[in-house]
Amino acid sequence: MTTEDTKPEVTGSGFLVAALYHFTPLARYRDLQPQIQTLCEENAVRGTLLLASEGINGTIAGPDAGISTVLGSLRSIPEFNGLEHKESRAAKMPFLRMKVRLKKEIVTMGVEGIDPLESVGTYVDPKDWNALITDPDTIVIDTRNEYETAIGTFRGAVDPHTTTFREFPDWVRNNTGLHNKPKIAMYCTGGIRCEKATAFMKAEGFEDVFHLKGGILKYLEEVPEDESLWDGSCFVFDERVSVNHGLEPGDHVLCHACRHPLTPQETEHPAYEAGVSCPHCIGERSREDRERFRERQKQMVLAKKRGQVHMGR
């Protein structure tokens, strides 16, 4: 299925991208869904927002005025008073459509009773993060998943090698060595996973638990590259795929077969075929799968030539 891409692209500085989350009791989240969907569509804003009884989470992009209107309208909702967001820019619209989805959790951990509004770790500003993670009394934990950590991480951080955030609690419970040092420092892309992760760690008996305020994105925005302890790029959940220091878009592309970020070198690998396979998934897909992906890629290319967006992407 295709649909015409009727929204004009912003020239010059491109699109404003806003990443946001807010934990709050939200009993009427189902009622808010159509209101927020319409608000975004009327302001040429695209992206994904998740609504649950615990709040809102997501990333949206659009013209500056449209994003400003949407954020202002969201903050006028009493439950979203105090909503914060992080900004970056994209030369092209990084989302295909606007989706407001209803979820059980705005970030899925799957552990009952974990409420960041009741107990959470200590926030650490980006300017103070280096001192904490270089403290020999600190264990640094990357709470993201394996495909994210593969392209960038803080020096010396422990990588749990999880494939989903649901695996994180079991990883913690199975790693008794985490108790060997008094301080636990945790980080994620924008901060939301650490809200749940630090709340969980405190429920598990860890006392000195810290997390990077604003996540990696805020660190890359505020900390000069020559002072940075970040190596690589940061995976983002939109068509930019990755960002670097200063939140400049990185050079990764996404394998649309397995959703793994790829370096320019990996796209030169014999196993790489755009939209069909890459070195990470070539052995995991059947011939029938690859033929189906190949047809999907063909339709995407044809739609682009017609100035349309292939909505099955």
TrEMBL record:
Organismal lineage: Bacteria, Pseudomonadati, Pseudomonadota, Alphaproteobacteria, Hyphomicrobiales
Species per Swiss-Prot/TrEMBL record: Hoeflea prorocentri
InterPro entries: Rhodanese-like_dom, Rhodanese-like_dom_sf, TrhO, TRHO_N
GO biological process: tRNA modification
Superkingdom assignment: Bacteria
Protein name per Swiss-Prot or TrEMBL: tRNA uridine(34) hydroxylase
Gene (name only): trhO
Catalytic reaction list: uridine(34) in tRNA + AH2 + O2 = 5-hydroxyuridine(34) in tRNA + A + H2O
EC number(s) on file: 1.14.-.-
SMART domains reported for this sequence: RHOD
HAMAP family membership: TrhO (MF_00469)
